[in-house]
Amino acid sequence: MTRAWFVTGTDTGVGKTVASVALLHALRSRGLRAVGMKPVASGCEWTDGGWRNEDALALIAASDPAPAYHDANPYALEHATAPQLAARDAGVAVALPVLQSAYARLASTAQAMVVEGAGGWLAPMGDGLDQSEFARAIGADVVLVVGLRLGCLSHARLSARAIEADGCRLAGWIGNTVDPDFDRPDDYLGLLRGALPAPCLGLLPHLPRKGSPAGGAWAAARLDLAALLD
Ligand SMILES: Nc1ncnc2c1ncn2[C@@H]1O[C@H](COP(=O)(O)OP(=O)(O)OP(=O)(O)O)[C@@H](O)[C@H]1O
Ligand SMILES: C[C@H](N)[C@H](N)CCCCCC(=O)O
Ligand SMILES: [Mg+2]
User: Any idea which positions bind Mg(2+) (predicted)?
Assistant: First the structure.
């Protein structure tokens, strides 16, 4: 059976893509066929192949086997804003069955699926479609990426509460050092460990250089998947 994790974050820009790429590398280093998905992406560039999103391309590059773009990212929306607005701008209605079909095609090739959400947990994927509905539909547990910055304690606790209230299971969380100058990261990690009802899967340090080819594997080595896989 294919295992699936839905990666959400304490906010947009907290490192969901960085963490999802790291998870894919970590799963693959365990010998698993692991495939990434970005169901709804707002913020795309036009190419000869159609609209392309940076997150989806990063997830595809970290996947083995490599998924077809339109399955990894069924909704590639131009404008870098809330998915609801980007979908309206594009004249598109984001539909759960379309997402489920694309997911099923990917999952048939994989032992592990890593699905990156859009923004934080309560940002809808489209009008009338919460991220929790898709996570439940595919049977995914949730991984919460906590961007370590002032305010993250409340955002992390709120996210954990909402995930459980939405009928999903929080399988673990990842601390991500988005801000290299953040004061007292170790103390914050202690607070988060005490406050969140799921294990910490690892701490991602501030990565040396964006786009470093070794970045995914380097970050993967900081993750302990035991709580996800055992
Ligand atoms: N540990 C880190 N070290 C250095 N830079 C990081 C780290 N984590 C994230 N970043 C940078 O911060 C920015 C936001 O990260 P990322 O794109 O992974 O966030 P996200 O949560 O996926 O955002 P979105 O909501 O847009 O999908 C990116 O430029 C990324 O390269
Ligand atoms: C465009 C951005 N980078 C993300 N992909 C989408 C962020 C959606 C945020 C919605 C909200 O305001 O909560
Ligand atoms: Mg992202």
Answer: 17, 55, 116
